[in-house]
Write a structure and sequence with these properties.
This protein is mainly β. The chain contains no helices and five strands. A five-stranded mixed beta sheet has the order 2-1-5-4-3, with no helix packed on it.
Length: about 70
């Protein structure tokens, strides 16, 4: 299954991204978008899976830099 995921970033001016993934993101996961790291805070199925594709929306927030 290929997961087409729309990532939207809250709390920061960032364009987000649309990525193809081999596994679905889960709340608490970290994702690298460009040079920045984000934490997934919400995942929603946009439409039911079709064939080998699933369509998801993930809301992320910036991870504070150390």
């Amino acid at each position: 299954m290929i997961y087409k995921v729309s990532f939207v970033v809250i709390g920061k001016a960032h364009p987000g991204a649309i990525l193809n993934m081999d596994s679905p993101p889960r709340v608490g996961d970290y994702v690298q978008l460009g040079d920045e790291r984000f934490e997934v805070v919400e995942v929603i199925e946009l439409i039911p899976p079709r064939g080998d594709f699933a369509y998801l929306h993930a809301t992320c927030r910036p991870v504070p830099e150390d």
